[in-house]
Amino acid sequence: KAGVTQTPRYLIKTRGQQVTLSCSPISGHRSVSWYQQTPGQGLQFLFEYFSETQRNKGNFPGRFSGRQFSNSRSEMNVSTLELGDSALYLCASSSVPGPLNTEAFFGQGTRLTVV
Amino acid sequence: GNSVTQMEGPVTLSEEAFLTINCTYTATGYPSLFWYVQYPGEGLQLLLKATKADDKGSNKGFEATYRKETTSFHLEKGSVQVSDSAVYFCALSERNRDDKIIFGKGTRLHILP
Fold it and tell me: What is the distance in angstroms between the Cα of A86 and the nearest Cα belonging to chain B?
């Protein structure tokens, strides 16, 4: 079956702009989590959605937001971009909320560069 | 709060050498522990996991044993290959209201032919 699909793969934006990233989970998975990966901070949890509801949220400013649609596809939005938002954004899907005893399947990520 | 600490890299080894990447954790309850691997240009893949004390996870020649007494989950492989070059992440997840995955900062591994 198809894996987790993230689009676009690469993105270059200017400071102050906003950006929307998309994640399509594995078919049948209803939980989608988002992570930010940077060389300095490593992998940091952004938020998790399950059945269109935000179930969990990390320690990021309100400029970072997300949503999930009825088909489980998820989008995350970053407004008023800053240079420090340059990162690889990873999406993970799982069949149940939270990893519990199942693994999370990750997409290849969207590489965002803010100039 | 919960946290994961793993050895800093990069780690450089010759092919067929023995590998250990240390990982220790702090958790308030009884977490599940994971090792994920990220190959160049790709997302994370689950390498192995253990869900309770003394469990041993294994996959592709890699092993890690859940040691509750030392709060550790060290990754080992007896004979590494060039294709094992990647970044390895230790992670935990605890079954409670906030059971998101918490990752270590990652260890970059270089294997020389």
Answer: 16
